[in-house]
């Protein structure tokens, strides 16, 4: 068995990679490439495994990690709420069937129009600054509504994440410093239109150790202790960030490990204070990353100073390697069981040297028209893709019970033109 195989999900059968029992090579032939393929059962398994480790905890799926309506629909069916970072994400989550009262709007630089949209939609808001608090209060008062709010705390916890993925450090743009928290809750308590019922933090993404969560829990509970005398706290939200093993063999905490790092501390501190707020968590990556492979076709194999495999997907389709030096396992889907025969660097069709998807990988002999699968592409994959270099965005497929459904159409040249306007004088 290959290190990346997950029984029932990703398997090698007859030298081909299969996902959810469906042959990846035949999917590439039927739907074309590049193609994101997601296994519904894996989404549900991930959700159930995570929530089983956190009994009684409310899961707010971080919608930014995968904006596909079908994916969010599946989580809605599993009982998830959503962490939405924009009005557009609130809209999508509502369209996927997630009830407004289970959506937390968490942006850090919200427009008044977005705040109005949140008020009209009836969602909760995680407030990131005093300016935002005042704007929200004014708008809610005018609309004769009361919005349930939390404040996003910057707990100053170092989470050993990639510098671009750490969000809870002093230098991070997110959240309110701990020293200002008590006074802002006091101020909010007096303002019309807002009802402070929660407290929120999120310390970073792709975190691979449990200790930062215990530290964040303690720091948040220190604040809870200080505000619980005058705030009727309904919930504490510790955010997401739970990492996954992109590099096979990397030791990664399990949901039970994460739970052990958070729950006993949370419960003990609540008991000591004499309160029983709910705990909320906002996993994104953990729920979706390993449910999805990105399939792409080899256009060229070039022996230069290195062996370059040129595919039809680049950082326009999956930006993570270019943006964060992220590792995604590369598998030749039509030779998945064959032994490695050489070292290859997989690159895309974009006019930039940074357009590299996988560097110096041991792979079977790679040839034109082979299908490369990049694994763990379900988080921050399609949703961060673009039309750079005049390439329409690709399609997405969902597999379930051995069958595939197209869940997002491949864009066409018309989509490149959509919304562009030629002034009459230039016609
Ligand atoms: C507020 C908030 N919550 C949750 C998440 C989800 O993070 P992850 O996908 O690492 O679980 C993010 C993204 O980092 C976020 O900004
Ligand atoms: N986009 C990042 C994660 C950012 C999380 C959002 N705060 C990634 O691909 O890993």
Q: How many helices in DSSP terms?
A: 12
The CATH architecture of the largest domain: Alpha-Beta Barrel
Tell me the radius of gyration: 23 Å
Tell me the distance between the termini. Answer: 61 Å
Outline the structure in words.
By secondary structure, this protein is of the alpha/beta class. It folds into 2 domains: 10-32 and 291-418, Lyase, Ornithine Decarboxylase, Chain A, domain 1, CATH 2.40.37; 40-288, Alpha-Beta Barrel (TIM Barrel), CATH 3.20.20. The chain has helices at residues 24-31, 40-53, 69-78, 87-95, 112-121, 130-142, 181-190, 211-227, 255-273, 285-288, 320-324, 413-417, and strands at 10-13, 16-19, 22-23, 35-39, 58-62, 81-84, 103-105, 124-127, 147-154, 176-177, 194-200, 235-237, 278-281, 292-303, 307-311, 330-332, 342-347, 356-363, 371-374, 395-400, 403-408. Strands 4, 14, 15, 16, 17, 18, 19, 20 and 21 form a 9-stranded mixed β-sheet that branches. An 8-stranded parallel β-barrel has the order 5-6-7-8-9-11-12-13, surrounded by 5 helices. Strands 1-2-3 form a 3-stranded antiparallel β-sheet. β6 (81-84), α4 and β7 (103-105) form a beta-alpha-beta unit. α2 (40-53) crosses α3 (69-78) and α2 packs parallel to α9 (255-273). The longest helix is centred in the middle third of the chain and has 19 residues, at 255-273. The protein is globular and about 65 Å long. The relative contact order is 0.16. Bound molecules: pyridoxal-5'-phosphate and lysine (LYS). The modification N6-(pyridoxal phosphate)lysine is found at residue 64. One of its GO terms (biological process) is lysine biosynthetic process via diaminopimelate. Belongs to the Orn/Lys/Arg decarboxylase class-II family. LysA subfamily.
